[in-house]
Amino acid sequence: MKSDIIIIGGGASGLMAGYGAAETLIKAGNSAQVTVLEKMPRPARKIMITGKGRCNFTNLKDWNEFSSHIRSKANFVKPSFFNLTPQGLIDLFSAVGMSSVVERGDRAYPESHHASDVVDTLVRLCHSKGVKIETETEVSSISASDGTFKLSCADGRAYTCSKLIIATGGLSYPTTGSTGDGLRWAGETGHTIAPTFPSLTALVPLGYKQGDALKGHIDRATPLADLGSKLCGIQLKNVGVQLIVEGSVAQEEFGDVDFTDGGLEGPVGFQISRKAVKSLVNGSRVSVVLDLKSGVELTELTTRVKELWKEVDKDPRSARLHEKEKCRILLGKLLPWDLIPAFLACNPEVMTLERRGRTDTKVWVNLVSIAKALKEWKFDIAGYVGYERCVITAGGVSTDDVIAKTLESRLVSGLYFCGEVLDMDCDTGGYNLQAAFCTGFLAGISAAKAL
To answer: Which residues contact 442 (CB under 8 A, 6 or more apart)?
Structure first.
């Protein structure tokens, strides 16, 4: 089967590449055929789970701010970004019936808050321009000779084309079809592959999961240990977070942190995960320090803790209570109640047991230690959740081997790359999908213009 332009991968970048190519051909009066080959039964499976099913599909920040959230070479993305800006993407979707809403942090969602609307819109865009979308079509090998690409499929079918766009994604969420095929093909054709690793993923504190020797990649399905059970489900708002690598502060953030069945996540957890995972992969010691009272200096907080203790101690209702019970009442004035068991388990120094004889013991509540622990709650990081549940893959096809203005390979004429298969990853917040859409759009346009 022959098609002039073939896109392998029917995800965000692949579908947008199909639309961009077909629209460009129509404008030029060219009747060439564009085909998208997708191995899964339905296209854009990963979009369906983006943003917990709500799909934060772009971010409306201008280039100067947007580029600061790109964790690879930002300038490589610049031509694609201005070819299809976030507002341009919103306008494009609106023109075919999908309204958007913009929420906190300039994040854009479909007005329905259903990710399926984004998928339906992309498919509708492609079909409106005559793009063929072939599902359940798994490409197993690629070869090129005399300006023609030949694609062999797992079911025995074969395709040929003169322009080929690889939009196969990375390695994250393999159940959606992202299994690294494009990285393999790029390597086989001589392209440099920057080492890949999970990004925007859960960090697993030491002792969070069952298993004494767990480190590195820790599967999300690994059962929780006692500490994990105490923390799982807790959400912390407006906390300071420091990422410590080999004893030095590597990154500082402020915002929300979630403890889940995977580990430490949430917006800020994801924000620090890229550098944390890369450091862990390289064998470095990594820890995360939470500041639960970031708006207050330690000296002021210490004074406040002492004042609260006096209030608790003098309260008539505390007369018959043990020190441990009074300590919990104190912590209840400083922390969410459901966080106290984990706080005490992680910071045993806040209470000291003094033995005065065989049967005589005294518990001391260390108020200074409580204040310090609230400001510096440290978690040593044992590992991270891998590709099975990470949001994005860092690393990929080296951007040095790809022309930024066209996304064509510098090594193989007529071959283009877009989306997550490239060494291009961003922060959480709509940045990654915008990068996928705009690089896909530019790759499609470039391939069509080159026919």
So the answer is: 20, 79, 80, 83, 84, 406, 407, 418
Please give the model's pTM, rounded to 2 decimal places: 0.94
pLDDT at 431: 98
CA 252 to centroid of chain Cα atoms: 18
- The total number of structural domains in the chain stands at 3
Strands 100-103 and 107-110: antiparallel
Find, among 402, 440, 445, 416, the residue nearest to 13 by Cα. 440
Q: Which residues contact 360 (CB under 8 A, 6 or more apart)?
A: none
Query: For the chain, first and last CA: distance in Å?
Result: 18
Question: Which among 384, 405, 435 is the end of a domain?
Answer: 384
Strand pairing partners for 239? 255
Domain that holds residue 305: 298-372
Could you tell me if residue 389 is inside a domain?
no
Specify the DSSP class assigned to residue 421. G
Question: What confidence tens digit (pLDDT) does each residue in 324-357 have?
Answer: 999 999 999 999 999 999 999 999 999 987 666 5
DSSP string, 16-56: HHHHHHHHHHHHTT----EEEE-SSSSS-HHHHTGGGGT--
Q: Cα dihedral angle (172, 174, 179, 182), rounded to 10 degrees?
A: -50
Residues 192 and 205 in one domain: no
Q: How many CB atoms lie within 10 A of CB 435?
A: 29
Residue 262 per-residue DSSP state: S
Distance between CA 228 and CA 220 in Å, rounded? Answer: 12
CA-closest candidate to residue 420, choices 190, 178, 189: 178
Q: Which residue has the tokens 């996928």?
A: 436
